């Protein structure tokens, strides 16, 4: 928070010398750009053990005036040092030069004489400003602002964070706060100080009317951010929640007019990342002309699910799985993502379809995380290096291995009936990875809207036991006896392992059972929303769940043959009943590749 020093005062805490022996104390008050008042432990304190320090501090105060013509921003106050007074003075001076926190806990007051007004930020850590471009849109109000508040409420945002909303509407700070207040909720599993934290978050929220001139609007955004930052070290995140047609203009104006020069800048871009190979390439080149690759975060909220984050943990933190993770033991892998009747496609879905919306990013990224080789570290770039190798090894899709469908809807159904005749709402495909680990293993994908239920899971089916002596006891359907690892996100997050066991009693009869870890029974906690997870990754600089430019290009190469055939009207859409199980052709596709269809 920004503090005004009038005759430079500091707070008192267990001072070993009465204050009147040195000078008169003045109370610290919050400046006009502060984020809140200063009370208790938030006050700047200095340890004093003898009166000689008063004279030395008068000299130090002159040095402060020479050096601090700007605001500094120290980190949290450390525990009391055990060094002598001279060491404390030297340490305090060094910390002022670096902008870090003085390790001091007791009190002394700087004298009146020759002291002018000083502005200082003692809130802790470098400041962070997060701007939501397109702040009045549905995504911003329904997902982004609630996720930011959840992070603030849980202590994952710095206390001196500034939240900025930017759009073309004529609004004030209070209008924006009123607009988003009803969307903010506190954690179910802990409700401490919910109202206070909500008020504090809203008080840190500001609005900028950018109008229709983004260059001028971004300059105003920059000026408002600088006002809040007060000259301290600053980091900035820009969430571009804007239509695709406005993305390049916004990104360009932002790059030239709103980036900070005293910290890092990161931009978040929503899918779709282009319409085809050429448009995606142009978009990428335009962004890379303004930003470095490490600044760009292409977000897909489905990749923020706990299921996705768990993939690498299960693979690389459990010895039982990694030796089995290859064509030697795995027969097939199925990735299932279905949305039920009430879930509507996104605003751009009618023009893009499920291939560009879901398959291009979420499905292919899931396959990459499942199939990649062990990275040399958990650094985001190391993981992305392994993912792109998988994407480049995936065989280009052919029409004979793809089933496209579209739900049949009428005006009486409470769904979008504006989906045009060429827009698929269902996709099923068999994909193959041409490398040594996965040669010949089908990765079967089915995803669609308007189906019987919401389902998100990954099924890893293992091969049959060679020369199984229990074949006669298993029964007719030997496929049901195959071992299976099921990673389920919806309806109930769980990890299931399917094994064969003997049914208790006389005789020998085998049964297939599931060993299960049901998250809601094991962990009594609220699962954060995927936007919370991904926004925190952006703040931390963890980019392993965000597509890099080379991953983006590799993904387009996989799906482009199907998109080209659709453009030529060489692919037909199979209609399916709204609220049903999807096109019948998908059942035959599974059978063609030797895989048993798992009933929903």
Secondary structure elements and pairings:
Blueprint: E1 2-5, E2 29-30, H1 52-67, H2 85-98, E3 118-121, E4 127-133, H3 138-153, E5 162-167, H4 173-181, H5 194-203, E6 205-209, H6 214-229, E7 234-240, H7 244-257, E8 265-270, H8 277-290, E9 296-299, H9 306-316, E10 330-340, H10 349-371, H11 380-393, E11 402-408, E12 426-431, E13 443-451, E14 455-462, H12 471-474, E15 484-490, E16 494-502, E17 510-518, H13 519-522, H14 530-540, H15 549-567, E18 574-577, H16 585-592
Parallel strand pairs: 4-5, 4-7, 5-6, 7-8, 8-9, 10-13, 11-18
Antiparallel strand pairs: 1-2, 1-3, 10-14, 11-12, 12-13, 14-15, 15-16, 16-17
Helix pairs in contact: 1-2, 3-14, 6-7, 7-8, 8-15, 10-11, 10-15, 11-15
């Amino acid at each position: 928070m920004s503090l005004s020093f009038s005759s430079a005062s500091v707070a008192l805490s267990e001072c070993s010398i009465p204050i009147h022996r040195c000078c008169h104390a003045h109370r610290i008050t919050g400046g006009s750009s502060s984020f809140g008042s200063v009370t208790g432990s938030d006050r700047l304190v200095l340890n004093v053990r003898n009166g000689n320090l008063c004279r030395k501090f008068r000299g130090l105060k002159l040095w402060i005036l020479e050096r601090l013509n700007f605001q500094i921003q120290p980190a949290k106050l450390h525990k009391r040092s055990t060094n002598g007074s001279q060491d404390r003075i030297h340490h305090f001076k060094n910390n002022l030069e670096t902008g870090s926190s003085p390790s001091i806990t007791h009190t002394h007051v700087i004298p009146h004489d020759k002291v002018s007004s000083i502005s200082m930020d003692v809130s802790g850590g470098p400041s962070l400003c997060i701007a939501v471009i397109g702040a009045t849109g549905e995504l911003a109000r329904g997902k982004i602002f609630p996720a930011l508040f959840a992070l603030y409420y849980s202590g994952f945002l710095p206390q001196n964070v500034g939240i900025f909303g930017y759009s073309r509407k004529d609004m004030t700070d209070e209008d924006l706060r009123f607009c988003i207040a009803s969307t903010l909720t506190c954690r179910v599993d802990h409700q401490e100080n919910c109202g206070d934290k909500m008020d504090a978050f809203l008080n840190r929220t500001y609005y900028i009317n950018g109008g229709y001139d983004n260059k001028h609007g971004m300059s105003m955004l920059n000026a408002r951010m600088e006002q809040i930052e007060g000259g301290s070290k600053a980091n900035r995140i820009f969430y571009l929640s804007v239509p695709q047609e406005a993305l390049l203009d916004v990104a360009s104006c932002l790059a030239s007019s709103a980036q900070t020069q005293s910290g890092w800048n990161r931009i978040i871009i929503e899918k779709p990342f282009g319409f085809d190979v050429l448009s995606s390439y142009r978009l990428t080149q335009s962004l890379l002309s303004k930003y470095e690759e490490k600044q760009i975060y292409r977000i897909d909220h489905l990749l923020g699910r706990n299921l996705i984050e768990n993939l690498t943990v299960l693979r690389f933190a459990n010895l039982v799985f990694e030796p089995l993770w290859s064509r030697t033991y795995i027969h097939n892998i199925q990735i299932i993502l279905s949305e039920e009747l009430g879930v509507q496609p996104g605003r751009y879905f009618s023009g893009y379809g499920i291939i560009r919306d879901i398959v291009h990013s979420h499905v292919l990224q899931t396959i990459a995380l499942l199939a990649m080789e062990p990275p040399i570290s958990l650094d985001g770039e190391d993981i992305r290096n392994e993912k792109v190798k998988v994407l480049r090894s995936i065989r280009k899709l052919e029409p004979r291995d793809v089933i496209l469908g579209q739900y049949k809807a009428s005006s009486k159904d409470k769904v979008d009936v504006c989906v045009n005749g060429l827009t698929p709402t269902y996709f099923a495909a068999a994909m193959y990875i041409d490398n040594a680990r996965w040669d010949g293993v089908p990765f079967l994908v089915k995803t669609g809207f308007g189906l019987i239920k919401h389902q998100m899971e990954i099924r890893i089916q293992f091969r049959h036991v060679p020369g199984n002596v229990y074949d006669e006891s298993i029964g007719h359907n030997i496929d049901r006896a195959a071992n299976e690892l099921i990673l389920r996100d919806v309806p109930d997050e769980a990890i299931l392992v399917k094994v064969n066991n003997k049914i208790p009693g006389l005789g020998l009869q085998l049964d297939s059972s599931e060993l299960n870890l049901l998250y809601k029974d094991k962990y009594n906690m609220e699962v954060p929303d995927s936007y919370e997870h991904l926004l925190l990754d952006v703040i931390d600089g963890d980019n392993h769940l965000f597509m890099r430019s080379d991953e983006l290009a590799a993904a387009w190469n996989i799906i482009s043959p199907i998109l080209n055939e659709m453009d030529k009207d060489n692919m037909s859409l199979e209609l399916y009943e709204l609220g049903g199980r999807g096109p019948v052709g998908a059942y035959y596709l599974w059978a063609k590749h030797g895989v048993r269809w798992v009933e929903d």
